[in-house]
Design goal:
By secondary structure, the chain is α+β, with helices and mostly antiparallel strands. It has three domains: 175 residues, no CATH class; 376 residues, TIM Barrel; 132 residues, Galactose-binding domain-like (Jelly Rolls, Sandwich), CATH 2.60.120.260. Helices cover 19% and strands 31% of the residues. Helix 1 packs antiparallel against helix 2, helix 8 crosses helix 9 and helix 13 runs parallel beside helix 14. The two termini are 32 Å apart. Bound molecules: alpha-L-arabinofuranose. Alpha-L-arabinofuranose binds next to loops. Alpha-L-arabinofuranose (AHR) binds next to loops. InterPro entries: Alpha-L-AF_C, ASD1_cat, BT_3657-like_N, GH, Glyco_hydro_beta-prop_sf, Glycosyl_Hydrolase_51. Keywords: Hydrolase, Signal.
């Protein structure tokens, strides 16, 4: 059941051998199969059945009919929805036996698409080399005697010529239009499924076709296994009654494992930061919202006034925050984040910057007003001069037994200007006095995260790290210093980042909860799903221009200096000290890149950054990336290959996968075959796709096996962490919240159990349970050499009770049991505790997870 991945790997190497055997070391431009004999050759047609369908392969069957085998690859260019299209693919079988494809991505981008494959199955890497003209249509190519390629395409400025290196990594467009005749665009044609298509015809060995067919069959079988769901259990296990199982622990097989296995992934997605963990209660406090953040937004969004709000930009508070509001006589109100939730008898720190616009001294009355119009707290200010000055007051919400809770939960801030003239106002801020450890984070949310006892916190993303286009890449130094000087930006998740929750706050939070900071920054390329820039160039947009890369590499070095340096000698460390943290933050890890497509621009830039870090800070653990999907995705394969080739500067690889519960249950052996000498694994984003106990069980089964492999898997983090109700960019998430309540999911309980009871050694254990599928029960034994504690986790993902008898480990009566159970469809579960009632016997109810502390 768990050997599928291995099988695929075997098939791949089988093909590699077959392909070489078939094509030999052909030096000629056209590979010749004639030596194999007529019966061993078949004809294939490579084409695209539609712009969203990607590249397909069909073969000519014995009845001379074309049969489609499936999709070989699809275009990864640009945004989901509007892009990811492939037009007029042209495929060539190169003289070295590899396959090359070019296509056009749309009719306005200044690029073509190029990809190569060794086996027609895994296409890598996909590059979108930039051209001097927009609208690069119908590219075609020829291979030269020296192995390089001549590519031609149509454009509004005539036909163009591009020369490609034989590794298909460098593409150089001729300055002059090409004079080549249009006749070279003549294509092969075939009728597949009754429709007529243009494409390319090839002869390939039957062995190769059979490998391709096997591959698709294996993929199909994997898909069927991965569709396993606990909803089918009543039928599948209808004859199953209470079970007895034996767990055998083999102390002789104990190995050291990572003591940082379970952490958290924090991304500002679904209002996780502004409006979430960052405790600021005023929305758009900086008047910097704009149309690019979100369609229809402007500097006055979330603010209300009887007349249009006057916004100005001259003589701003900070060049990074150019907009501010101008007050004359009209009231200004802020709606908060879906209202402002306050608590009776609590204090709130109110502040703003203002300046009189003239010689008149304006006065401001500020009040917190409940939903029912009741005034909850107020303060008065007299503005002193014409220069920006910060004003502060503590607003105490009156204890009022008669105030309806709803009214407190939906308050608003009201500013009433008094007196002649006008005043400018900016950075209007309201924080609860009571934040997590006094560091400005919302207490209940921070406590819920802290209760996971995460060993590390990854931040600030996710896709938010690499950003929507080059101009949206997250620059960490834009997020430190005085809040008004930080550089706000649009959030790739379609809202605004104030950067109030910046790198200082992230590092402080890590320290407050005893977790290692794991910042992940862009590898010099934005998200491959980025929208178009002004020239209509989307996706990775060619990456940060090479001329700017030294400065970008320096940003990583500055970060390490800022986090760890000595304020007496380092200007960056001094900024940290000035912000209130003279002691170093002891940064040990840095992530470079977030699930990027492993393109040439990515590889070139990633290497520059990793080299720069390792040259100056060889002890920093550098984490690379392997695309957005697991094996056998091309980015995964190429990302790992790249990391292994550069293991001297890449210590760990970040893997991402969001999958069905069935996938997790049927890939419990996923890490068994990983190379122990290569880079370590960071499973940076994973989750099974329900919000129910079924996911919590599947993830618990999986984590038992991850622990078994925690000599190679160093870190894991469920993703995403937080989502605000009404603002979900993603589902499921680990923790949901609104302005007053926090709701954890069953998966949260799994994370807590594996993180709170963690260790640094793993002892092998096996389960004997006749007649039940092995993927529904799991055990894992970890021990912590620092505390001397041993933990046995048991997972029962069956609809019946299982009585476990444990051998090889002494579990005395009274040992503490922690865990949860329920029904697969339950959206809520809670951890319960009990104790062992009979030495070495533990009974697990249906669908349950237990941790036994020894
Ligand atoms: O976790 C949500 C998103 O999923 C992340 O931003 C991205 O890295 C992944 O695609």
């Amino acid at each position: 059941m768990f050997t599928h991945q291995l099988k695929m790997k075997k098939l791949l190497s089988f093909l590699a051998v077959a392909a070489v055997a078939a094509i030999g070391n052909a030096q000629s431009v056209k590979p010749a199969y004639s030596v194999l004999g007529k019966d061993t050759i078949c004809q294939v047609f490579i084409y695209s059945p539609g712009d969203r369908a990607g590249l397909h392969l069909a073969y000519l069957d014995d009845n001379d009919r074309w049969q489609d085998v499936g999709q070989l690859c699809s275009s990864d260019y640009g945004r989901w929805g509007s892009e990811k299209r492939m037009y007029h693919p042209f495929v060539l079988h190169a003289s070295d036996g590899t396959w090359r494809a070019v296509w056009s991505v749309n009719d306005y981008a200044p690029c073509i698409a190029a990809a190569y494959s060794e086996d027609l199955i895994t296409w890598r890497p996909q590059d979108y080399p930039q051209m001097s003209v927009q609208g690069c249509r119908k590219p075609i190519m020829f291979q030269m005697e020296d192995g390089t390629f001549d590519i031609y395409f149509h454009s509004d400025k005539g036909n163009r010529y591009v020369h490609a290196s034989n590794d298909f990594r460098t593409f150089k467009e001729d300055e002059e239009p090409s004079t080549i005749e249009d006749v070279v665009w003549t294509r092969d044609t075939a009728t597949v499924g009754g429709k007529h298509y243009e494409g390319n015809l090839f002869d390939i060995p039957k062995l190769h076709l059979s490998y391709i067919n096997d591959y698709f069959r294996a993929l199909g079988a994997d898909g069927i296994m991965s569709s396993e769901s606990m909803a089918q259990d009543s039928e599948r296990f209808k004859t199953l009654t209470g079970l007895k199982a034996r767990v055998t622990v083999d102390k002789a097989q104990t190995k050291a494992i990572s003591d940082k296995l379970v952490g958290v992934f924090f991304e500002d997605i679904s209002y996780a930061a502004d409006g979430g963990l960052y405790a600021e209660l005023i929305q758009n406090r900086d008047f910097e919202y704009n149309e690019r953040d979100h369609k229809g937004w402007s500097p006055s969004t979330a603010w209300h006034s009887p007349k249009p709000i006057k916004i100005a930009t001259d003589n701003p508070l900070s060049k990074n925050n150019p907009h501010y509001a101008v007050l004359a006589t009209d009231t200004l109100q802020n709606e908060g984040w879906d209202g402002i939730a306050v608590k009776s008898s609590q204090q709130y720190a109110f502040s703003f910057y203002a300046r009189n616009l003239g010689t008149d001294k304006k006065q401001l009355q500020v009040a917190l007003v409940g939903d029912d119009g009741r005034e909850l707290a107020k303060a008065k200010f007299k503005l002193q001069g014409e220069g920006w000055t910060q004003y502060r007051a503590l607003l105490s919400v009156k204890a009022d037994k008669n105030a309806p809770t709803e009214s407190l939960h939906n308050a608003r801030l009201v500013i009433v200007p008094k007196g002649e003239g006008e005043a400018a106002i900016d950075m209007v801020s309201l924080f609860p006095q009571d934040t997590y450890k006094g560091h400005g984070l919302r207490k209940d949310l921070a406590e819920t995260i802290a209760a996971l006892k995460p060993k590390f916190v990854r931040f600030p993303g996710g896709c938010m790290s690499h950003g929507d286009g080059l101009d949206n890449i997250y620059h960490w130094h834009h997020t430190i210093g005085r809040p008004e000087d930080r550089v706000p930006d649009r959030n790739i998740w379609n809202y605004h980042q104030t950067r109030g929750l910046g790198f200082y706050e992230y590092f402080q939070f890590c320290e407050d909860i005893g977790a290692e900071p794991l910042p992940v920054l862009a590898a010099g390329v934005p998200c491959q799903n980025s929208s178009n820039n002004a020239c209509g160039y989307g996706g990775q947009q060619g990456g940060i221009p090479m001329a700017d890369m030294p400065a970008y590499c320096q940003e990583f070095l500055n970060l390490i200096e800022w986090a760890n340096g000595d304020p007496a000698t380092s200007k960056w460390a001094k900024m940290r000290a000035d912000a209130g943290h003279p002691a170093p933050f002891h940064l040990k890890y840095i992530g470079v890149g977030n699930e990027d497509i492993i393109s040439t621009p990515f590889e070139e830039r990633c290497l520059m950054i990793c080299k720069a870090i390792k040259e100056k800070y060889p002890d920093i653990i550098v984490c690379g990336t392997a695309g957005p999907f697991h094996y056998p995705s091309a980015d995964y394969i190429e990302g790992w290959k790249f990391a292994k080739e550069h293991h001297n500067i890449i210590d760990m690889v970040d893997e991402h996968y969001y999958e069905s519960t069935g996938w997790f249950m049927n890939h419990l052996d996923y890490y068994d075959h990983y190379d122990r000498k290569g880079p370590k694994v960071y499973v940076g984003e994973y989750a099974s796709r329900t919000r129910t106990l079924e996911s919590a069980l599947a993830e618990a089964l999986f984590l038992c096996h991850v622990e078994r492999n925690a000599d190679v898997v160093s870190m894991t983090s469920y993703a995403p962490l937080l989502a605000k109700d009404g603002h979900h960019n993603w589902n499921p998430d680990l923790i949901y919240f609104d302005n007053t309540a926090v709701t954890t999911t069953p998966s949260y309980e799994t994370q807590r159990l594996f993180s709170a009871y963690s260790g640094d050694h793993y002892t092998a254990s096996t389960i004997t349970a006749p007649d039940v599928p092995a993927n529904r029960l799991a055990s894992s034994v970890v021990s912590d050499s620092k505390t001397g504690k041993t933990y046995l986790r048991l997972v029962n993902a069956l609809p019946v009770e299982v009585d476990f008898e444990v051998g090889g480990l002494s579990i005395p009566t009274g040992s503490r049991i922690t865990g949860f159970s329920g029904l697969p469809a339950d959206k809520k579960t809670e951890t319960v505790t009990s104790s062992v009632t009979k030495d070495n016997h533990i009974s697990l109810p249906p669908y349950s997870v237990r941790n036994i502390e020894i």
